[in-house]
Amino acid sequence: xxxxxxxxxxxxxVAPSVIVLFIWMIVPLAMTLYFSFxxxxxxxxxxxxxxxxxxxxxxxxxPEFWLAISNTLALVLGVLIITVVLxxxxxxxxxxxxxxxxxxxxLVIAPFFVMPPVAAMIWDNLFxxxxxxxxxxxxxxxxxEPILYMEQYPMASIITxxxxxxxxFATLILLTAMQSLSSEQLEAAEMDGASALNRFRYIIxxxxxxxxxxxxxxxxxxxxxxxxxxxxxxQGGPGSASTTLPYMIFKQAIVAKDIGRAAAGGIIAVILANxxxxxxxxxxxxxxxx
Amino acid sequence: xxQITLKQVxxxxxxxxxxxxxxxxxxxxxxxxxxxxxxxGKSTLLRLIxxxxxxxxxxxxxxxxxxxxxPPAKRGLAMVFQSYALYPHMTVRKNIAFPLKMAGMNPxxxxxxxxxxxRVLNLANYLDRRPGQLSGGQRQRVAxxxxxxxxxxxxxxxxxxxxxxxxxxxxxxxEITELHQNLKTTMIYVTHDQVEAMTMADKIVVLxxxxxxxxGSPLELYRRPRNLFVAxxxxxxxxxxxxxxxxAKLGAKTIGIRPEHIEVxxxxxxxxxxxxxxxxxxxxLKVDAGELGIMTVRxxxxxxxxxxxxxxxxxxxxKVHRFDANGLRLD
Lengths: 290, 331
Fold this sequence. Notes:
The complex is a heterodimer of chains A (290) and B (331). Chain A is an all-alpha fold. Chain A has a single domain, classed as MetI-like fold (Orthogonal Bundle). Chain A is built from 13 helices and no strands. Chain A is flat. The two termini of chain A are 25 Å apart. The longest helix of chain B is centred in the middle third of the chain and has 18 residues, at 166-183. In chain B, the strands form four sheets. Chain B has a six-stranded mixed β-sheet with strand order 6-7-8-3-9-10, sandwiched between helices. Chain B has a four-stranded antiparallel β-sheet with strand order 2-1-4-5, with helices on one face. Chain B has a four-stranded antiparallel β-sheet with strand order 11-12-17-18. Chain B is globular and about 75 Å long. Chain A binds chain B through residues 182, 184-185, 187-195, 198, 202-203, 206-207, and chain B through 50-52, 71-73, 77-79, 81-83, 85-90, 98-99, 102-103, 146, 150.
């Protein structure tokens, strides 16, 4: 496949899909860029024109923006830590030969099939609700006042919900990685006198680094855009306490009906995502090399 | 120190009795080879000794102490695995140092021991490489290095050469034999390759379906196989086994004669050559000898017969093995 003519042919063959993909990507990006420099308010359609960086500076001046950035990062980091740590532990557990392993694994994976708004509803109404929720009942059983999770700890609640949804994903990837570890290596370590903890630290964990990297990269991509859970559970509140960058953009676009500002927010989100991606690849990307 | 005694050791996986009951004494400093066909339980037996499997019943004594319920690390044994089981993310140095590090030895002493092992095994130039960058033979040496730094009371080898190519296998075979001569430590070696068994062992243990068929020195097994299974298993090409009238003449149910103990030229037996393989030093003949069945005959390189020739041949009288109806040797 590397003579001159076949190389030319292959380029011509893939050209259409490359062109379509390029247009698919560049047109929305270009339009967002274009709108982000213009006045474009749905409530006053007669006002148009260029505004320079006004849409961007509005964000940087807004205290809600910095809160949203820190909330976004807290969400991503919190969920990553919870899913990777718990995912590793659960994977270690369900990797053990037990009766009903098949059923157990399906139970572990189940939350991943629950769609985000439903997951948020389940947690909001069945677990965290002060009157009807399970956690409220537990609090009362100990004679305490039920905690108003969504009001008092909105961001922690959102992180819990999202981590619950993504835990199966991490568990599944880490479980398959664990199963690809040759049992002879573990036996050799056992003969070498490594305790269970040392076997995990020196054999299993190094074997998992690549899988953990994959989990972190994939989850980060999705977690930066989490929206449905926030919309369903807290509406970004109370106040702006659980507003993330995507939710703030949504508020600008749909509530305030200011497309210009929302577009500027979108561009900021793209830049933020690239910064995160850059640092991620710098710090853990080398794990992906064989 | 490295004396191992098995007393009525049994192992079952559910209803499958892999080892129905084995008694075995391994003396200090011996090179013992477990040999047998695939699935005969030889690896399981080794893993029982290593402590990687629990015995169903019976006792394992190491150096006179009951080790039946000791965890693997406490038994003072080192094992070399078929896949080498090197730790891929660690350098050769770290691989070899791992058991010492786990034992909590101080770094200076670890370095000394690793350097020593590397020198003995010709690994000094590879200490900072990872297993992935080494050839099969080098990986094998690292695995052995990881075993010897612990100064175990016995080494366990689980088919260590089966992943190597033929030429390398011969070399490593000699290296392991030399290692045994230098260290004088007990070694238990599992293989299905009888050439390895014959060349390396002080004592061969022939296993079949979890039972010990015979224990003895290589030549003992070759010269006086205790039963039909050992007779057929040890020796290459296989011993010719003849039943019927010819065997009855000698008062046996079955007689066995090795291909190398048959004289071609004249004699009571005759047959048609179905296949002749001239190897230069030897000539292997497959002879269709009618009632006697297909016989394998090994002649010298000078034997000049070809497919289709009719030949006469005779067994060397004192090299005929006789077996009774139960397959046991008659003397």
